[in-house]
Amino acid sequence: MRKLSSTLITSTLGLAAALPAHAETKIEVLHHWVSESEVAALNTIREALAAKGYGWQDSAVGGMSGGNMQQALRSRLAAGNPPGAMQFIGWEGIDWSSEGVMRDLNDLDKANGWEATIAPQVLPFVKNGENLIAVPINMHRQNWVWANKAAFDKAGIAEPKTWADLIADGDKLKAVGIIPLAMGDEPWQIQVIFDALVADIGGPDFYRKALVDLDPEALNSDTMKQVFDTLRQVRGLVDDGFNGRDWAVATGMVIDGQAAMQVMGDWAKGEFLAKGLKPGTDFLCFATPSETPSFQFVIDSFGMFKVSDPEVSKAQVALAEVVMDPKVQHDFNLIKGSIPARTDLGVDDFDDCAKKGFAERATAIEGNAMLGGATHGFAAQPQFAAVFGDVAAQFFVNEMSSEDAVQLLVDGIDNAR
Questions:
Q1: Per residue in 375-393, pLDDT tens?
Q2: Which residue in 16, 172, 262, 292 has the fewest CB atoms around it within 10 Å?
Q3: Among 175, 165, 91, 77, which residue's Cα sits nearest to residue 134?
């Protein structure tokens, strides 16, 4: 899952090895993965598909967390020219399935027992009623903090236990010439922090009431005002050059030591690993600080569209099998920074951050603190999720009181109902 620059990107950007000469059929896959670590991870799927005798026709469309990709898809469908497969996040796959344009994968599921290997929290995003309509490749955690260890050591700070600690550490970092927090002004990057604050300050139950149930009392509460008050303090940790900054550029600032921290999903870890950096030695990873920690999950899945070409249909089957193959899930997630969507795989050879994520996911499941990341469409439906993102972004980049932000939020949700 990722937010990217708003440029149409094609396979000429170098998705590693060329397709094998013997591949008789190519399946076109629409997605928005183009960063260095994403490309490397994606190649594990391409190579496994090639081993089955099928080629991968790459169609990558960046921008707006896949929003540009969704627009491109709608034009394709209107022209009667759907791609063979597409990467989905949030409710996207369910929405397209409800429009009757996707094939179900029930026979494959029945033959392979896939559903039993998928975490229950993920099923609502890959099943439409009784039909399996997409296959998940990974599970990301959205509410991570990534930190440059040398920067922490230079400032004499340790992992913060509260947001107040994290904000106070900003002054110590500034005193030694380090930007405390790297980020861009894109609404989704701001909303990642907003989502974390809602859960960390209000707790998992408050998060569900506000961002999933859209409860008016929760939306208009003093707790929500406290969320915005804290978000205003977070703004003070960010440098003035954050306009137009891509998430991966912000990650690079932490990698280089220009900045100390980034609040971002564990796709950011893939960028650290791609540079040969090691967790604990070169960088630190910890959940956004809270007395009631949560695990805010995001998954990427692949769905298949109804096509008339029987050979492409066979390639779709091959791709679905590749995505759910245990070795592919293992290899893909080692590179991507995420953990496998399948719950029946071990983690012994994953990095320490992934192991921490596995352990904290288990704790979150036990404590009813497993939450869908609202930023990426795993909480309320998109028309409501957009309101949270828009209000948080307006508040972050403008002078606005917390009271006004809460009122804007309440009005926006009411108008979207």
A1: 999 999 888 999 999 999 9
A2: 16
A3: 91
Q: Which tens digits make up the pLDDT trace of 290-315?
A: 999 999 999 999 999 999 999 999 99
- What gap in Å lies between CA 339 and CA 292, rounded to an integer? 22
Contact indicator for 198, 210 with CB cutoff of 8 Å: yes
Residue with tokens 């997630």: 333
Q: How far is CA 202 from CA 194, 195, 292, 327, 392, in A?
A: 12, 11, 9, 39, 16
Closest by alpha carbon to 138, among 356, 354, 363, 298?
298
**Cα–Cα–Cα angle for 400, 402, 405, rounded to 5 degrees:** 70
Average pLDDT over residues 279-299: 96
List 131's β-bridge partners, or say none. 128
Rounded to 5 degrees, φ, ψ at 99 are -85, 0
Torsion of CA 9, 11, 15, 19, to 10 degrees: 170
For residues 189 and 201, what is the distance between their CA atoms, to the nearest angstrom?
19
Helix ranges, 244-351 (H): 247-256, 267-274, 310-323, 326-336
**Helix (H, G, I), strand (E, B), or coil: what is residue 345?**
coil
pLDDT for res 13: 38
Question: Residue 64 has what pLDDT?
Answer: 44
For residue 89, give the nearest of 372, 265, 298, 270 by alpha carbon: 298
Token pair, residue 192, equals 């990642």
Q: Count of CB atoms within 10 A of residue 367's CB?
A: 13
In this prediction the pTM is 0.83
Distance CA(147)–CA(239), nearest Å, equals 16
Q: What are phi and psi of 352, to 5 degrees?
A: -65, -35
Instruction: Please list, in sequence order, all residues whose beta carbon lies within 8 angstroms of the beta carbon of residue 59, skipping any fewer than 6 positions away.
Output: 10, 11, 28, 29, 30, 31, 83
**Once rounded to an integer, what is the mean pLDDT over residues 342-354?**
90
pLDDT at 3 over 80: no
How many Å apart are CA 414 and CA 391, to the nearest integer?
A: 13
Q: State how far the alpha carbon of 174 is from the alpha carbons of 1, 168, 177, 238, 416, in Å.
A: 32, 11, 5, 10, 41
- Report the C-alpha gap between 56 and 308 in whole angstroms: 18
Residue 218 to residue 49: CA distance in whole angstroms? 47
Angle at which helix 247-256 crosses helix 267-274, to 10 degrees, equals 50
